[in-house]
Amino acid sequence: MAKTQKYVYFFGGKKAEGKADMKALLGGKGANLAEMVNIGLPVPAGFTITTEVCTYYYKNNHKYPKELKAQVLNALKKVEKEMGAVFGDPKNPLLVSVRSGARASMPGMMDTILNLGLNDVTVQGLIEKTNNPRFAYDSYRRFVQMYGDVVLGLKPKDKHEHDPFEVIIENKKHSKGVKLDTELTADDLKELVQEFKTAIKEKTGHDFPDDPMEQLWGAIGAVFGSWMNERAIVYRKLNNIPEWWGTAVNVQSMVFGNMGEDSGTGVAFTRDPATGENVFYGEYLFNAQGEDVVAGIRTPHPISELAKENPALYKQLDNIRKILEKHYKDMMDIEFTIQQGKLWMLQCRVGKRTGFAAIKMAVDMVKERLISKEEAILRIEPNQLNQLLRPIFDSEEKKKAVESGRLIAKGLNAGPGAASGKVALSAQDAEEMAKNGDKVILVRIETSPEDIKGMNAAEGILTARGGMTSHAALVARQMGKVCVAGCGALKINYADRSISVEGRDDVYIKEGDYISIDGSTGEVILGKLETKPSEVIQVLITKTLDPKDSPTFQTYNSLMNWADSIRRLKVRTNADQPDQASNAIAFGAEGIGLCRTEHMFFGENRIMSVRKMIVADTVEERKAALSELLPLQREDFEGIFRVMKGYPVTIRTLDPPLHEFLPHTEKEINELAQALGISYQTLKAKIDSLHEFNPMLGFRGCRLGVLYPEITEMQARAIIEAAINVMNEGVKVKPEIMIPLVGHVNEFKLQEDIVRRVADEVMKEKGKKIDYLVGTMIELPRAAVTADEIATRAEFFSFGTNDLTQTTFGLSRDDAGKFLPLYVQQEILPADPFETIDQQGVGKLVEMGTKLGRSSRPNLKVGICGEHGGEPASVEFCHRTGLDYVSCSPFRVPIARLAAARAVLNERTTKTTKSKVAAKPKAKSAGKTKAKAKKKSTK
Amino acid sequence: MAKTQKYVYFFGGKKAEGKADMKALLGGKGANLAEMVNIGLPVPAGFTITTEVCTYYYKNNHKYPKELKAQVLNALKKVEKEMGAVFGDPKNPLLVSVRSGARASMPGMMDTILNLGLNDVTVQGLIEKTNNPRFAYDSYRRFVQMYGDVVLGLKPKDKHEHDPFEVIIENKKHSKGVKLDTELTADDLKELVQEFKTAIKEKTGHDFPDDPMEQLWGAIGAVFGSWMNERAIVYRKLNNIPEWWGTAVNVQSMVFGNMGEDSGTGVAFTRDPATGENVFYGEYLFNAQGEDVVAGIRTPHPISELAKENPALYKQLDNIRKILEKHYKDMMDIEFTIQQGKLWMLQCRVGKRTGFAAIKMAVDMVKERLISKEEAILRIEPNQLNQLLRPIFDSEEKKKAVESGRLIAKGLNAGPGAASGKVALSAQDAEEMAKNGDKVILVRIETSPEDIKGMNAAEGILTARGGMTSHAALVARQMGKVCVAGCGALKINYADRSISVEGRDDVYIKEGDYISIDGSTGEVILGKLETKPSEVIQVLITKTLDPKDSPTFQTYNSLMNWADSIRRLKVRTNADQPDQASNAIAFGAEGIGLCRTEHMFFGENRIMSVRKMIVADTVEERKAALSELLPLQREDFEGIFRVMKGYPVTIRTLDPPLHEFLPHTEKEINELAQALGISYQTLKAKIDSLHEFNPMLGFRGCRLGVLYPEITEMQARAIIEAAINVMNEGVKVKPEIMIPLVGHVNEFKLQEDIVRRVADEVMKEKGKKIDYLVGTMIELPRAAVTADEIATRAEFFSFGTNDLTQTTFGLSRDDAGKFLPLYVQQEILPADPFETIDQQGVGKLVEMGTKLGRSSRPNLKVGICGEHGGEPASVEFCHRTGLDYVSCSPFRVPIARLAAARAVLNERTTKTTKSKVAAKPKAKSAGKTKAKAKKKSTK
């Protein structure tokens, strides 16, 4: 005979029928209440009606399974026995709360009813038990009000209508000549109960049910009903919570913190959720209900005071704190009530925390042997590391500034950290102001490669246009600069050197005025705010702090070591300069994944040669200009090779459209014309002729080297000469030469042939052999789909996912600002594909490219050097796809290291789950297993 | 015991050992010589040494197979017997020619030796046989000269050196005081022979071999050697002829057309290769050698004269002509020699022909029951149809113009046909000049949508910039206009309304001057040339010619009917206007595959409303502007639906970047500002704000409709209202609404929802239901790789391969002019991917998109509407990929119909070949089969 299905789970006393890992069936609240009972904590007895009842209810036209009624009555009996009170008993009534409890927290989305079981008869029992008529009638009044609203539907019809119950209360206070609810007497409250009931009958046509059992079923139905209310539906949609999960219903004995001075209530965290320190952290109030603490009418006391006020109680609570941490192995958020001296636990769940705290707690717990290093790593979102790395505002000072109206606009949080300085509206101004010792915020409509030096001189960069991967954002992150990008409210007027702000007529900023930007939040704040580098930076980069003196650094360092011991993916950095490279190594980079040779072209002593090269009319002229650049490029590479000490260095040959290097002002054009000995007009015409309609899809990448092989020749020579020179100093060197924007294997062949020929020449000249690789970026869809052909020649691939995203989507990141934010906001796209890799589309091409590439060259080295290389979800994708490394800006290296470790751990989990599923495919639980798998995929 | 391998194939008399289908083994020449023998034609006896010997020769260090010598001697014996002469005999010497003969024709690439077998002894025999010492010594002299050059290597060391033999001849003429070779006497020639031999010995160290057998082997070695000469290698590379094919060597008895007035020589085609007419076409000369006809020293006579001069011979030849056509079932190109009254056939091969002739001959031969209609279709390159469709220059007049230096430049042959008219340098000028009754050629640096009306008014369009799919080229082909694009030599000066031409200082063209362009060749010719529409156009479009009166039209029509009976692919057209649509139907279109709604936006009474819509600040303003456009768009669609009479019409919602519609001149901006009641500055700022860095990847396609749903609403309403209105007139209507530039299924969903909602509204308002489809363009790589998701909603796909090519390659067609021509020229890319679809890259995405799309919607209708839809190789690709239809500009419809039929036939051939290969995988011929397959793939 089939066993009757269990729909109701009792908890209370020393034993619960459920436990913590039954969240899917009991909801988070119910599972944790059961768990607390099981570990011996004092929990008011109750029972949980499972989520399966909710599913049944919606599948069967709002009917319950026939077994439910008996199971509820049975559980209620147990509760009565445990609590020593009887539901509906005139003398000793049991009161209960009825609350929803879904698998995932949906705060405030569904309904709750307290004090259920009261009626004109049982209220007398309550008076007798408490000897407190006002408390009893206040409880009764609150119950009727909640029940009338939630179960019987007496509520305002729209936003403009007042709550009908509050209207009655207001009238009552008015007629009694009092101002506060608390001034109403027991009799007043008794009158209110009757008036509420009358209003309910009049306005809804329903009688208020006096029968507690009727009350109970009404409340249960209302809670299940609230699963489908509009708020809940919207919330689920926003948070990807599937409808079929359903909610559980928790029916629990009431305990009261407002039964006098020996009663009270509180909330607490088992550790400090802001700093992560291992101290008991929370607040409490005597003679109060939970909502009093929340409402802020009375100021609660810090939990530390309880140690003095009631040492026994504090000791009991602190003991519970320890039990909970030991049991849950995490920082918990708890709610408790003291009823007439007895402590009851009402709720416990994993506590929310700042990134800083998350890291500290995770690392501390490993050291306390509460959790493993793997668990620690899985608990920290990689981006939370930013909170350890970036310069920071003093939080108090910032709060004051915001409160005084100095927060004038918000942009994209493009480069985390805090920066404060004088506004400079051009790169040149920024450099000059910095030379004078000023801290500078460079504010531009948008930035271009010409602004690099100014960006480097500035503390932070603020732009009015451009997204998360705009030039400003990319370069800022690579430089480790604070950046707020795409702050559209700023109206930057270069002509009169000022900024105004849309919607803020009171604000007018002149160049040289102070401004502060928070690149972690995108906030732009008027005036100056102090900042300081983080301790980790002080240890690793400025080297102004001894690691021994910094617990924060030690925390960071432990975590990173654990991550390194777990991850498979290598982490490289995108760096063009020795100092960037050296920072990246300090952050744990294991090579350079992208060294852009063109960033070196903007140096003072170079740009003229570069321009000469571009406007050259003949091969000879171009070669002459290139020969001026050769020694400079060689020096650049020598510097980088020295710093990288044998780590691989991937150097990309010239990539950007040539017009990016050309002068645009009349003055500069004149200078160049003079240097070249040609007329202004001739040069201007030449510059104009280089104009392109779609430079992104134009004459760039390897197309430059195909048309002008002498450029590739010069760069190959500079790289190989530098490599041999540095090798001769006794330093190991591993150059990897990377050809950009290859679409057809023939382009690669032509460029590779040049590189190999020049390398042979140089090695012969220098009498020394070196190992080097020649590979390519895969940044065009065509390269991805013909990767098998390309890999017949290329020794490595590096996915340039910035450009691959642009071409795969047909989306220019410079122009997408008009519609992309709306696309993300309206969830047309799940996320900004320039921020996290689009796994369904772009990712499919990455997978295809990797697979095809390795089909013709099994040992093909594959990496990624787009900005996605430092974004945790993308790093995880790269791990799953079998890439060898990711490369990202120096300050993202620790994030990538952590993300790579998490990828390994998440993969293990998935595999375990999968193997479990695979192990019992035909077991009775097949249905449930399916449901689990579905849950996974929906997450 | 293994049979000895056969390396030598005899031909002559009534029987040859080879035949026509042995080209791979015997080369084209050898196979056809054998075939002619077999069908009873008089061929001088000889033998062919197979290509396998060539392969052996190169594999075995320039050695021959050991069996070869005996087989050659044996064959030579048969030749001697057949010709009644003996090789090396002093009295009756057999002379032979030794010629190469590869599988594919490689004209002039390899070496030939004539008159072999002569020496001081045999020359006497020749004198006796012919009684003509001068002839004998001239033959001897020629032989020594050729042999010295080809076999013994006495030739000029470089281009600057004179031919050493010619120097000796010049000296001889000088010393004899004569000017022409023909003035040299037998004795002079005899002296020359000795002087040649002395020179050979002195300069090469080799004795000239007197032994005919030594001569023969030397010549055979030289011919095999010439397979690897530099010219031949380059030629093979250019023509994709694999090296391993090798060449055969033909050794054939000499016959002489210069043995007196009863001898002669000639070349002929079995039909007119220019017009295709079924007449004998060729030239002959009596008492002459082949080279005399070619050299042009004497003027040959048309073959028709032979009928009078020597009716018997003519009859014999004409009979051979008939035998050949009946046997080969094709027009043949023949060479013949008459030696002392006897006719000998020296060569026959399939003759080259013009497109016009190819079509006429193929159709005629079907009617003559020589070939099947399938064979006819396979014989015509679809693009050859252009020669039946386009207006044409009188060829004589054009030739004269070119000869007089009026050909001033060449651009891309972007829109076939011929046009002549006055130069207009702006669209407005073009319109005005056309209104005054002038024929106009619109000459622009490049064109934009604003120029549409001017382009329509012009006879032809000539641009200095832009490729085969530039705006000018696309629109021209759609309009059926002649177009030469990307003619970089033109320097167009809008300021002083003139054109100069690079490298032609003598040319200066003012606006209003006459110019002529040939869009089939890209030629630009100064001054006026007369043109006329083709007969097919006169029948189908201008309707000025009765089909009965045009044999050319009937030819066209037969061919098209046959193609239609074979093809599976439907052919639609890209058309925005009723007249275009109606032309397309005349050309056989079966629907519209792409109706661009934005082309309608440039009409005089519309552009202002469009501009109002674009610069609108509020939804209300935008809706007001759109409501002005609604009735106009509805009328457009009504016009098209009426013409299309129930054929499906795919209408694309608004696609281009909005700034394309905005005014750019101060005057226009002022006008619009006044109309809108805003200031010039405000409007200018608005226009500037719409500027994009990469408009191709910017705010366009469905992104417009997502941000401004009211645009899609208006267009959907216009389409459905028009459809119902036309249906109410009793005309069938099949609208297919197409959403452009979809990258994510969510974009499609949003747009589809709007279309369906509006359609429901309109149908309710009108009280009538209509069937319509909603589908999408697949023109982004992301759409192709996520086509399974998109097809859950989209009812049809249309591959927009223009944009798909741009994004897959990361290549802007507007900017690629700088490097793409070089890429094609240097064979980095096999072809311009905008001209013919890149099957390896873009094609892979098309295949993937089709497969994925049909995986979620098996009955998904799939088409292509890029310009590739009318390009034969791309059409064939579409057929193989399983598309339902191609869509192309009206004038390409016949080409696409023919290409679609050829695709079916080629597929049959491939399948037959494959099944044959599959049938005997383990047979002895496996090696050969492989070779065959390889040959296929190399072609």
From TrEMBL, chains A, B:
<keyword id="KW-0460">Magnesium</keyword>
<keyword id="KW-0547">Nucleotide-binding</keyword>
<feature type="domain" description="Pyruvate phosphate dikinase AMP/ATP-binding">
    <location>
        <begin position="24"/>
        <end position="61"/>
    </location>
</feature>
<feature type="binding site">
    <location>
        <position position="801"/>
    </location>
    <ligand>
        <name>substrate</name>
    </ligand>
</feature>
<feature type="binding site">
    <location>
        <position position="802"/>
    </location>
    <ligand>
        <name>substrate</name>
    </ligand>
</feature>
<dbReference type="InterPro" id="IPR036637">
    <property type="entry name" value="Phosphohistidine_dom_sf"/>
</dbReference>
<feature type="binding site">
    <location>
        <position position="779"/>
    </location>
    <ligand>
        <name>Mg(2+)</name>
    </ligand>
</feature>
<feature type="active site" description="Tele-phosphohistidine intermediate">
    <location>
        <position position="471"/>
    </location>
</feature>
<dbReference type="Pfam" id="PF01326">
    <property type="entry name" value="PPDK_N"/>
</dbReference>
<feature type="domain" description="PEP-utilising enzyme C-terminal">
    <location>
        <begin position="557"/>
        <end position="902"/>
    </location>
</feature>
<feature type="compositionally biased region" description="Basic residues">
    <location>
        <begin position="911"/>
        <end position="939"/>
    </location>
</feature>
<dbReference type="InterPro" id="IPR015813">
    <property type="entry name" value="Pyrv/PenolPyrv_kinase-like_dom"/>
</dbReference>
<comment type="function">
    <text>Catalyzes the reversible phosphorylation of pyruvate and phosphate.</text>
</comment>
<feature type="domain" description="Pyruvate phosphate dikinase AMP/ATP-binding">
    <location>
        <begin position="314"/>
        <end position="367"/>
    </location>
</feature>
<feature type="domain" description="PEP-utilising enzyme mobile">
    <location>
        <begin position="438"/>
        <end position="522"/>
    </location>
</feature>
<comment type="similarity">
    <text>Belongs to the PEP-utilizing enzyme family.</text>
</comment>
<dbReference type="GO" id="GO:0016301">
    <property type="term" value="F:kinase activity"/>
</dbReference>
<dbReference type="InterPro" id="IPR010121">
    <property type="entry name" value="Pyruvate_phosphate_dikinase"/>
</dbReference>
<protein>
    <recommendedName>
        <fullName>Pyruvate, phosphate dikinase</fullName>
        <ecNumber>2.7.9.1</ecNumber>
    </recommendedName>
</protein>
<dbReference type="InterPro" id="IPR000121">
    <property type="entry name" value="PEP_util_C"/>
</dbReference>
<feature type="region of interest" description="Disordered">
    <location>
        <begin position="909"/>
        <end position="939"/>
    </location>
</feature>
<dbReference type="InterPro" id="IPR018274">
    <property type="entry name" value="PEP_util_AS"/>
</dbReference>
<feature type="binding site">
    <location>
        <position position="800"/>
    </location>
    <ligand>
        <name>substrate</name>
    </ligand>
</feature>
<dbReference type="InterPro" id="IPR013815">
    <property type="entry name" value="ATP_grasp_subdomain_1"/>
</dbReference>
<dbReference type="Pfam" id="PF00391">
    <property type="entry name" value="PEP-utilizers"/>
</dbReference>
<dbReference type="GO" id="GO:0046872">
    <property type="term" value="F:metal ion binding"/>
</dbReference>
<feature type="binding site">
    <location>
        <position position="779"/>
    </location>
    <ligand>
        <name>substrate</name>
    </ligand>
</feature>
<dbReference type="InterPro" id="IPR023151">
    <property type="entry name" value="PEP_util_CS"/>
</dbReference>
<feature type="domain" description="Pyruvate phosphate dikinase AMP/ATP-binding">
    <location>
        <begin position="63"/>
        <end position="302"/>
    </location>
</feature>
<keyword id="KW-0418">Kinase</keyword>
<feature type="active site" description="Proton donor">
    <location>
        <position position="865"/>
    </location>
</feature>
<keyword id="KW-0067">ATP-binding</keyword>
<keyword id="KW-0670">Pyruvate</keyword>
<keyword id="KW-0808">Transferase</keyword>
<feature type="binding site">
    <location>
        <position position="596"/>
    </location>
    <ligand>
        <name>substrate</name>
    </ligand>
</feature>
<feature type="binding site">
    <location>
        <position position="652"/>
    </location>
    <ligand>
        <name>substrate</name>
    </ligand>
</feature>
<feature type="binding site">
    <location>
        <position position="803"/>
    </location>
    <ligand>
        <name>Mg(2+)</name>
    </ligand>
</feature>
<dbReference type="InterPro" id="IPR002192">
    <property type="entry name" value="PPDK_AMP/ATP-bd"/>
</dbReference>
<dbReference type="InterPro" id="IPR040442">
    <property type="entry name" value="Pyrv_kinase-like_dom_sf"/>
</dbReference>
<keyword id="KW-0479">Metal-binding</keyword>
<dbReference type="GO" id="GO:0050242">
    <property type="term" value="F:pyruvate, phosphate dikinase activity"/>
</dbReference>
<dbReference type="GO" id="GO:0005524">
    <property type="term" value="F:ATP binding"/>
</dbReference>
